[in-house]
Amino acid sequence: MATDRVRFGVIGAGGMGSGHCTSIPNIPNCTLAAICDTDEKTRTAIAEKCNVPVFDNHSALLDSGLVDAVIIATPHYFHPPIAIEAFQKGIHVLSEKPLGVTVGAADAMLKAAKESGKKFGIMYQMRGERQNQAARAIIESGRIGKIYRTSLIMGWFRTQAYYNSGGWRATWDGEGGGVLINQSPHALDLFSWLGGLPSRITAQTRTSLHDIEVEDEAVALLEYPNGAHGYIYASTVETPQIQRIEICGDKGKILLDGSDITLYELDNSIRQFSEETDKVWAAPKPTEIPVELAPASDKHGHTIITQNFARAILYNEPLIAPGEEGLNALEIINGMILSSKTEKPVNVPVARAEYEALIQDLRASSRHKKTVKEVRETDPNHV
């Protein structure tokens, strides 16, 4: 390995993987060294475009000696076995979201990473956005006090054509879920990164609009170890689209609405004011505080995470999105699906064996798609 550059291989060159193949050559400290895809048409196209060795299976790429690290951008079920094999062969791993379909499979990835001593990251690029970095710093500083309520509203939209664009999409056997495991992981990661991981989940999921076998709408009530409560709504049935996070504390509140951040600070803590005031209709006075953001950058989120991962390998720079923290979003995803299917509250950490059994049952009954018009391209809104 060069002293100032990491040789990356991209495993899975359709969809998001093609975006990584295009961006890596332009990222400092990074070199695109090899690509793998199982689809011959995709391999031919990407080979002409990128002019690097292209393999038809991930093991051949991992054994090639051409790469120091890989980005895994395959369908979800393949993330854990490919990552584990890479770690066993002494190669660093940066995985696309989610870590896997089940928390049990993710546990195996984390174990392999720890045993290998190699860097392990996950592509949660929302963490690199400056408003989210600011929110994290404010919460960690204690400025909003003890958190007593959280909420995440993620109302997105997807067409039926989107769901018909791949045989694996929106099936239990191919994807392992719907809006929760495909569209929601980034928001759920950010939500848990800021508000913490709940200890109990009560959820409902349903398919309300699309002709798919998995959920396109999900809702949950959350309980936290400190007694706080939370709420999650996620869907692909809504437009105009919204992503809004509230983190409410005893001394203030943070609102993240898309790329906007609002901070309110109180002139007294809610509990102290309530206990000490003798006024009937009084309340702590909120003041909107301007939030200082880092200077704007021309680097998008994926670029920030990829360069940070390379610098973690080269210079031991702290990871923005460590692989082990990718487990938090998956705990919520699995917990919401398990609660919905069993119609009862679910504790976190999620019971591994129970969820594995549920997924195996769902995969066994998964139906083959009747209509597929294969499209492999990157979402233009998330490059």
Tell me what the structure shows.
By secondary structure, the chain is α/β, with parallel strands linked by helices. The chain folds into two domains: 6-125 and 299-321, 3-Layer(aba) Sandwich (Rossmann fold), CATH 3.40.50; 127-296 and 328-375, Dihydrodipicolinate Reductase, domain 2 (2-Layer Sandwich). It is 33% helix and 23% strand. The chain is built from twelve helices and 15 strands. It has helices at 16-23, 40-50, 58-63, 79-88, 103-116, 130-141, 160-163, 185-195, 270-276, 301-315, 326-342, 352-364, and strands at 6-11, 30-36, 54-55, 69-72, 92-95, 120-122, 147-157, 200-206, 217-223, 229-235, 237-249, 252-257, 260-266, 286-289, 346-347. A nine-stranded mixed sheet has the order 14-13-12-11-7-10-9-8-15. The chain has a six-stranded parallel sheet with strand order 3-2-1-4-5-6, with helices on both faces. A hairpin with a 2-residue loop joins strand 12 (252-257) and strand 13 (260-266). Helix 4 (79-88) runs parallel beside helix 5 (103-116) and helix 8 crosses helix 11 (326-342). The radius of gyration is 22 Å and the shape is globular. The mean pLDDT is 95.
Distance N to C terminus: 27 Å
Shape: globular
β-strand percent reads: 15-25%
For the largest beta-sheet, the strand count, sense and barrel status come to:
9 strands, mixed
CATH T-level topology of the largest domain: Dihydrodipicolinate Reductase, domain 2
Secondary structure class reads: alpha/beta
Q: H/E order of the elements?
A: EHEHEHEHEHEHEHHEEEEEEHEHHEH
CATH homologous superfamily heading of the largest domain: Dihydrodipicolinate Reductase, domain 2
Q: How many discrete structural domains?
A: 2
What is the residue-mean pLDDT, rounded to a whole number? 95
Q: Estimate percent helicity.
A: 25-40%
Q: Radius of gyration over alpha carbons?
A: 22 Å
Unreliable runs: none
Named CATH architecture of the largest domain: 2-Layer Sandwich
Record field, number of beta strands = 15
Annotation field: number of helices: 12
CATH class of the largest domain equals Alpha Beta
Across the major sheet, the strand order is: 14-13-12-11-7-10-9-8-15
